[in-house]
Amino acid sequence: MSAVIMNGKALAERIKGEIANQVLRMNKKPALGTILVGSDSGSIAYVDGKHRDCAQVGIKSIKMNLPDTATTAQVLSAVDELNKNPECTGFIVQLPLPKTVDTEKVLLAIDPNKDADGLNPINLGKFALGSGSIIPCTPKAIIALLNEYKVKLPGANVLIIGRGKTVGRPLSILLSQKPSNATVTLAHSATSNLPELIKNADIVVTAIGSAHFIKVGMIKTGAVVIDVGITRTKDGLLGDVDPQVALTASVFAPMPGGVGPMTRAMLLTNLIELAK
After folding, report:
1. Which parts of the chain sit beneath pLDDT 70?
2. What is the pTM for the complete model shown?
């Protein structure tokens, strides 16, 4: 068996084409704001990619870059500025923030009506209740890829490894709700029977940031595997999943090229939703 490889880049380009057409028909052009704190090369590259996407589809960009030494008060001031900026349709605060910055306080300060990442507690609460329209970008990207490749979700045994607030926790909610109706197990560092859970899962989503943690013999033949993890090594950026897993999986979303491009595309769809 050789897996079908999920081409997130191709799907993202198609979605961006649809967004560009929507933007052309809008009287007021939407604008995406970003707040970047620090000089992490990965965060810089990711934010730059978001602004390239914006330029590609006709969305304006508002960039706010703060130094590594920025305090919580300074980040909150930047949030307040974008909250009040009438030109800004929605914005994101690039995570992770430096440890010296109170992330929870920053996310709480984002105007829910401008929360393009869907991480403000009010939007997360609505999302958990199934009544919110702004869905966190990476879980939204994963669902879009699963639907594009016609992966059967109702009744599927899904294992999510990683319980972070941007991927694991919201994805577990999204997959268990209608219309996905999957049976979801959320695993983490304290899970004692993880190898057994991996072997029995129909769909494995991993977002732990441990390079090539999932090896080819660990999944069952025909499983669907979604790699969301990123680890910086001397060999470059590596995902959580050894690419050899594609030899036994039925469908595989690799890192890079799978979820990443789609996460950025979903940010644009959230921005359009906020504009409406």
Report:
1. 1
2. 0.93
